[in-house]
Write a structure and sequence with these properties.
The structure holds 2 protein chains of 2 kinds. In chain A, about 20% of the residues lie in helices and about 30% in strands. By secondary structure, chain A is an alpha+beta fold. Chain A folds into 2 domains: about 1-100, Pseudouridine synthase I, catalytic domain, N-terminal subdomain (Alpha-Beta Plaits); about 105-210, Alpha-Beta Plaits (2-Layer Sandwich). In chain A, β7 (about 160-165) and β8 (about 170-175) form a beta hairpin. Chain B has a domain at about 5-230: Cobalamin-binding domain (Rossmann fold, 3-Layer(aba) Sandwich), CATH 3.40.50.280. In chain B, α10 links the parallel β13 and β14. By secondary structure, chain B is of the alpha/beta class. Classes of the chains: A alpha+beta, B alpha/beta. The structure holds iron/sulfur cluster. Iron/sulfur cluster binds near residues 281, 597, 598 and 602 of chain B.
Chain lengths: ~220, ~625
């Protein structure tokens, strides 16, 4: 048996399907594509698939991955994309499959970009406000945790934001801690921004990839 | 696809994937390449509508015609509706993202009466004028079909064309006519007058109703050459009728997410309360080979690993075991499981059960419908208590511990004794469990008895009968409840007021259109959902419109009253319905179509079960 990581993009309409639904779509696809992968045993066997770092609903994913186990060790992985794509909705495109080198637990960072806009403020105004927010030494936002809602300080992460110059809308990039140990949801930063502005901000987020603690791309 | 402005509200609503389109097998065409755009609207949520087989069939069929582009549209859930209104986004179809007002045809499928408020609300949200007479151009033609088209009158003012019977052929004839009329520069009225000549088409605007002083109908008058009787359309050759090779595969979870094949239409049984059983006569089966091929292709094209073989009573398929055997030839290998919903009590045989894998140990459902043999005879539900108990014993010995039994209250001729019979039958099933040697050890039994209040429906032998009022429904529910003496029986019952309001529209007439219009103005929607339904609001609304709902529900009609739906012909003679009603009063049963033909009238279609015997004799 061979551990394989299947790489795909999640975009367009499919940005708006939840992780649970993505799981269902993928199950159906690997089943229908008849990939020689390992099925769970028991009363209702189904293909065994896992996702090293699920993507939040609404995000575009540029380099998402899903882990499976191939029964046929000699299976030509370069064919996986062409086998799966016809069975997937347009918004999900497989672009490769590689043998897994790292463990999901190795994931330490994720890189995002985002485009922000508002009904009331221009891009220039948003930029100015965001720069001011980045100067603050404390910035509390409510976060849902297992023990209820807690205020957490996200100022250190907001300082990591880089504003991309010369764009029409406000566009930013940021790399945040990710993975099972310490995961920072980028939406918290924008909630902080909305609270600071006291008005709605719309955002479109893309996750460009995940990395280990040395900032090597996850493989 | 969705309009750009929708993007910013998608993250503010639950399950936004319902509003984006972009599913596998969704049909995308170029507007420039088509002559006719059809918005197929399902007046309920995406999850419910996407599970509906009729919609899948027509969607594929329309799109198989190069000049038509058929798209889907569902009722947005209340959170989405609120956002759409707030941001001024009109209701759009999922393939193009264009608002409903841009479509040539806007088609609704009518599955239950309480969805009428959603029909109107969707038109309103889509920017389509509600009243047929306010849509003057040859565009935005609003059409409707489905089970509730059997009594179109309560929404007659809003719909331009109703399709009566099975839509597969007639819809396309109407589209073709529309295309021609538009080419010739004809008006909407000219188009409608011509459409009314097509068999299976009802154009309400071409009919006038006169009433007696007591509110009953005095006359129903066709104008402009429209026919007096609308005959239903029916597909006789099931093997050559259109069936999709693929379904749109949703990205989000829906109610029934699986491949479906309809194994036959109609029902041989003739239960007297069942509208579908009478409207869809005669029974017409698909052949084993057709079903097998359709199931195989569907699984291949969708990736589903479950096929549901649907019909009104699946075990009545004349060759059910050979069918399952044939399917098992590939389903086992491909890890596809089969399910057979709507199994009759006598259909639960070892032979069938061993070939169906998905009937999980969690739930087996049977529908005795009434608690005593006397009442079961009166409604012609030919299920005997000993049969039911025997079947339950088979199930218990096979490891099942949960059984669900469906009943109705308020059936014609019912007495309190019959209601107590529901509790007694439940008890008998419980007792059977403890008599079973091979029952699951260490586990108790749970029998769920569900009771829905009976709503008399058009085109059934009970179409003249009185329905129970709200208080009476509640009283009867309590009679059953207090007769249940064990915790092993769970008793579920439907909301009395919902059923009552549904009953108003089930047998309503055109006078109700003004109620519907007001309901829409007041923002009624999702009345089939307890989240939104309010009995008080409905009763207030009736009062405001000067309508007495009891006129439609608790009033028993005389056999010679002109009923609002009398102008429609579903193939079963009114005289047959009447004789069946009289037999109910005597608690006398009628044999099923395979035992003996009772001459209901549906033989005039020249096929199906009515001619099975002749076929076998040759
Ligand atoms: S004509 Fe006879 S066999 Fe045919 S549907 Fe009616 S009762 Fe059944």
């Amino acid at each position: 048996m061979k551990n394989v990581r299947i790489w795909f993009k999640k975009d367009k309409e499919c940005r708006f399907i939840s992780h649970l639904d993505l799981n269902r779509v993928m199950l159906r696809t690997v089943y229908r594509a008849k990939l020689p992968i390992w099925y769970t045993e028991g009363f209702n066997p189904h293909p065994f698939i896992t996702f090293p770092l699920p993507l939040s609903l609404g995000f575009r994913g540029e380099a998402e991955c899903m882990d499976v186990r191939f029964l046929d060790e000699n299976f030509d992985l370069s064919t996986v994309a062409d086998i799966m794509n016809p069975f997937l909705p347009e918004g999900i495109r497989v672009y490769g499959a590689t043998e897994s080198k790292m463990k999901p637990g190795d994931i330490a960072f994720a890189k995002f970009s985002a485009r922000l806009y508002s009904d009331t403020l221009s891009a220039r105004e948003l930029k100015t406000e965001l720069c001011e927010l980045m100067l603050l030494d404390e910035c509390l936002v409510p976060k849902k945790t297992k023990s209820g809602i807690k205020d957490i300080d996200v100022s250190q992460y907001i300082k990591l934001i880089e504003i991309i110059p010369d764009t029409d809308d406000l566009e930013i990039t940021v790399t945040l801690p990710a993975g099972s140990a310490n995961n920072v949801n980028i939406q918290l930063l924008f909630t902080a921004f909305e609270n600071y502005l006291k008005s709605d901000v719309y955002y479109e987020i893309t996750r460009h990839g995940v990395f280990d603690k040395e900032m090597c791309p996850f493989e | 696809m969705y309009p750009k402005e929708v993007e910013k509200i998608l993250l503010k609503v639950q399950k936004p994937g319902k509003y984006t389109g972009g599913e596998l097998n969704a049909v995308i065409k170029d507007k420039k390449d088509v002559d006719l755009r059809f918005a197929f609207c399902f007046p309920d949520t995406y999850e419910v509508g996407m599970s509906h087989l009729g919609m899948k069939i027509l969607y594929s069929q329309f799109n198989s015609v190069p000049y038509i582009w058929c798209e889907r549209c569902f009722a947005p859930w209340i959170d989405m509706e609120e956002q759409m209104i707030k941001h001024n986004i009109p209701l759009y179809a999922l393939e193009s993202g264009d608002p409903l007002s841009e479509f040539d045809f806007i088609g609704f499928t009518l599955q239950y009466e309480l969805s009428y408020t959603n029909v109107l609300n969707m038109m309103k949200l889509g920017g389509v004028p509600l009243l047929s007479k306010d849509r003057n151009e040859l565009k935005n033609i609003v059409v409707a079909g489905g089970a509730c088209a059997s009594n179109p009158e309560p929404i007659a003012d809003f719909i331009d064309i109703f399709f009566i019977g099975e839509g597969e052929e007639v819809d396309l004839e109407v589209m073709e006519l529309f295309r021609e009329c538009r080419k010739n520069g004809e008006t909407k009225e000219e188009f409608l007058i011509k459409a009314a000549q097509i068999k299976g088409v009802y154009v309400p605007a071409l009919y006038e109703t006169e009433y007696n002083e007591d509110g009953t109908i005095k006359a129903f008058i066709p104008t402009k050459g429209a026919p007096d009787k609308i005959e239903k359309r029916v597909i006789m050759d099931m093997d050559n009728s259109f069936f999709p090779e693929s379904f749109v595969v949703p990205n989000v979870e829906i109610v029934h997410d699986r491949a479906v094949s309809e194994i036959f239409r109609g029902c041989i049984r003739g239960c007297r309360f069942c509208q579908a059983g009478f409207m869809n006569r005669p029974v017409r089966e698909k052949s084993i080979d057709t079903i097998n091929e359709q199931c195989y292709k569907l699984c291949k094209n969708t990736g589903y690993d479950e096929v549901s073989l649907t019909s009104l009573s699946s075990s009545d398929y004349s060759q059910i075991v050979p069918l399952l055997t044939k399917l098992n030839e590939w389903t086992d290998e491909e890890k596809v499981s089969l399910s057979l919903p709507s199994l009759r009590v006598d259909g639960f045989t070892d032979d069938i059960m061993s070939r169906i894998k998905t009937v999980r140990k969690s739930g087996l459902t049977f529908a005795p419908e009434a608690g005593t043999q006397r009442l079961r005879d009166a409604i012609n539900k030919n299920v005997r208590e000993d049969e039911l108990l025997e079947t339950c014993a088979t199930a218990f010995n096979g490891g099942w511990t949960n059984i669900k039994l469906y009943f109705m209250t308020g059936l014609p001729t019912e007495t309190d004794e019959d209601l107590e019979g529901i509790a007694n039958l439940g008890q008998a099933v419980v007792n059977t469990f403890y008599r079973c040697e091979n029952r699951a050890k260490g586990r108790g039994v749970n029998v769920t008895c569900s009771a829905s209040p009976f709503i008399p429906k058009p085109f059934t032998p009970f179409q003249w009968e009185a329905q129970d009022g709200i208080e009476e429904i509640k009283r009867k529910q309590m009679v059953v409840k207090s007769a249940i003496k064990t915790k092993k029986i769970t008793f579920n019952y439907h909301d009395a007021a919902t059923t009552y309001i549904e009953g108003v529209f089930a047998r309503g007439d055109r006078k109700l259109c003004k109620v519907m219009l007001k309901a829409c103005e007041k923002g009624f929607h999702f009345d089939g959902w307890s989240d939104c339904f309010s009995a008080e609001k409905w009763l207030e609304l009736f009062a405001e419109c000067g309508i007495d709902p009891d006129f439609y529900t608790t009033r028993k009609r005389s056999f010679d009253e002109i009923l609002p739906w009398d102008f429609i012909d579903y193939g079963v003679n009114k005289s047959f319905l009447k004789s069946e009603c009289l037999k109910a009063y005597e608690s006398t049963t009628t044999p099923n179509c395979r035992e003996k033909c009772s001459g209901c009238g549906a033989a005039k279609y020249g096929g199906g079960v009515c001619y099975e015997k002749c076929k076998n004799m040759v």
